[in-house]
Structures are given as C-alpha cells and as structure tokens.
C-alpha cells in the first residue's frame, strides 16, 4: 500500500496526517511516478493553512519532486519506464510515495544531477530563472536587492545574479545566515535584525538605490523595499512568508519615483511546454556546469512533514529542504 500526507482540514502543521492511499493507473498522456525525493516550499504552507485554496478536500500538499517513471499511460512517447524525472507544477500532491502525473509537466533529470538535488531545485530554481530573466532582466553592472537571501530561492538567486554580472545585496535574519549568503555570491549581506536595510542599501549604492527588489517576505518588507528603489525601479513581490500585505495605494508608487510593482507566480511562466523546457533547461545547465550549487540545508522523512513545516515557519531552515519518502 502506498502512503501520502493528507490534509482533511486546513490549519496548523499538525493537520497533516500520514495515511495509506490508493494510486490509480495512468490515463491518456499520464505516467505513474515513484518519488525518490520531494521538495519543501513555502507555497505548501499557504495551501496547508488555507491561504491558497486547494483543488479539493482532502488533499495532498506539495508542488515539487523527483522520481522514477514506473508506468506509462496511453499516448506517452517521450518518456519510458525507468526514466528519472522531476517537476514543479500544480496541482498539489507531491507529498506522497507514488502519484499519477501528466507527462507533459515532467522533465528528465540529467545523469550529473542527483534526485535530491533535482527535488530541491526545480521550483526554486525556475522561480529564479523567471525573476532574473523575465520579471526584470538582470544585466552586468546592475545592483539588485534579494530578501531572504539565505533561503532556498535566495541562495540560488545570489549565485545566478552574480553569474550575470550583478552586484548582489541580500537581507537575512542572522549573522550565520549572512555568512551563508556570502558564500553563495551575495556581495553585501544585511542582517535586518541589527541593521536598517534601507539605510544600508542607500549607503552601498551611493544614495541611488537599486533598479529591482526581489521580495518573497511580503508584509514586513514591502513598504521599506519601495524606499530602496531608484527612479522607475521595479518591485517584484513573489511571496509573503511574513503574512498577507495590506492594500496598496498606487499613488505611493508615483510619489516614490514612478515605481513598478509585480506579483508574479512561477506557474504562469512555465504554463506552456516551451516555457517549461526553457526554464528547466537553463537551470539544469547552470547546475550541471557547477555555476550554481544547490544547498540542501536539511532533510526529513516524508512522514515527518509536520516537523519540516514547523522548522520552515520558524525560519530555522537554510537553503532547500528535502522530504525523503
């Protein structure tokens, strides 16, 4: 019997249960996957708490995993049984030992990338891809501000932006996290518990500010981040780990320098097969060449998902977290 984490009522981490489940056979265009590693992301918390609405109840959380193709449905020709694959896509359901997936949402994992690494990097890495190439196209000579620089997305973003020739400023919550961010390409790591990040950004940039802020924290950083931007700068808010933000008076954007604000999501940037292959291909190329290394800060057994969520919400994690079936 296969097992999965099930949520019957949204709420605190304890609402997640380890249960036996039935896994059906794949239908047209689908495959059955046996998971070998599962990625933990803050979006999983949003679904667990009900901040994001699940497609049905009960449901299995999780958007990211790597595994082995075990069975093919009719019409699947691009994959074969035994292929190593990974994904980062809705609908939720990756917190399980096995599942049925649409084949066109999967990408093959190259031999040089482990299953743990693939599960730890797909959602976070492709998020960085669209942030740095689509939300605001970072170029050599730019100075960028990345919040939560020691997190899973942050560590990848620091390395990728550095590779593009940017000067990277990152905010973190401790001196230990500041050092971790520095070792991953962050030129200026600011501990927001001991320094005012707006003042430091202005100091680093000679009062000019930065052309872009990448912010997954949300409520506690958003307004101050606007003060870090130069004229016509871009605020990219792609998460809200500190809570939902207050309604924004758009007149503030004019007053602070004709600013731009975005609230993008990865899944709109990989909605087509072409975009998915572009994002995953760019990420796997850089990881495969060693330009970006994926830092797995902690591992939990899948059945210990409650403890993994507690650690994530308490900001005790660094880098990526992997759940092991």
From TrEMBL:
Residue span, Enoyl reductase (ER) domain: 11-323
Superkingdom classification of source: Bacteria
A single GO cellular-component term on record: cytosol
Annotated keywords: NADP, Oxidoreductase
TM segment ranges: none
Entry EC no(s): 1.6.5.5
InterPro entries: ADH-like_C (IPR013149), ADH-like_N (IPR013154), ER (IPR020843), GroES-like_sf (IPR011032), NAD(P)-bd_dom_sf (IPR036291), QOR-like (IPR047618)
Pfam families from the UniProt entry: ADH_N (PF08240), ADH_zinc_N (PF00107)
Reaction catalyzed: 2 a quinone + NADPH + H(+) = 2 a 1,4-benzosemiquinone + NADP(+)
GO molecular function: mRNA 3'-UTR AU-rich region binding; NADPH binding; quinone reductase (NADPH) activity
Similarity field: Belongs to the zinc-containing alcohol dehydrogenase family. Quinone oxidoreductase subfamily.
Name this protein carries in UniProt: NADPH:quinone reductase
Organism listed in the record: Natronocella acetinitrilica
């Amino acid at each position: 019997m296969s097992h999965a984490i099930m949520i019957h009522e949204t709420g605190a981490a304890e609402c997640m249960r380890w249960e036996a489940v039935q896994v059906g056979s794949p239908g047209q265009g689908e495959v059955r996957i046996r998971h070998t590693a599962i990625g933990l992301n803050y979006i999983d918390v949003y679904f667990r708490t009900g901040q994001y609405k699940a497609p049905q109840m009960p449901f299995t959380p999780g958007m990211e995993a790597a595994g082995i193709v075990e069975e093919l449905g009719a019409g699947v020709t691009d994959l074969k049984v035994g292929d190593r694959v990974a994904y980062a896509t809705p609908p939720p359901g990756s917190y399980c030992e096995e599942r049925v997936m649409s084949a066109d949402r999967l990408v093959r994992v190259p031999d040089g990338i482990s299953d743990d690494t693939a599960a730890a990097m797909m959602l976070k890495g492709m998020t960085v891809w669209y942030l740095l190439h689509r939300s605001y196209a970072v170029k050599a000579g730019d100075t960028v501000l990345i919040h939560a620089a020691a997190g899973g997305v942050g560590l990848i973003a620091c390395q990728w932006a550095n590779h593009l020739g940017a000067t990277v400023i990152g905010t973190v919550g401790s001196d230990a996290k500041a050092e971790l961010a520095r070792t991953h390409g962050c030129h200026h790591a600011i501990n927001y518990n001991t320094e005012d990040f707006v003042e430091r950004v202005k100091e680093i940039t000679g009062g000019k500010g930065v052309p872009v802020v990448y912010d997954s924290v949300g409520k506690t950083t958003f307004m101050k981040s606007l003060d870090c931007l130069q004229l016509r700068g871009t605020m990219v808010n792609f998460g809200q780990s500190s809570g939902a933000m207050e309604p924004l008076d758009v007149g503030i954007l004019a007053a602070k320098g004709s600013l731009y604000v975005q609230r993008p999501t990865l899944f709109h940037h990989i909605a087509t097969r072409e975009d998915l292959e572009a994002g995953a291909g760019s990420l796997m190329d850089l990881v495969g060449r060693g330009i970006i290394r994926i830092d797995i800060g902690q591992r939990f057994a899948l059945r210990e998902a409650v403890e993994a969520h507690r650690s994530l919400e308490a900001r005790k994690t660094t880098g990526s977290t992997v759940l092991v079936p």
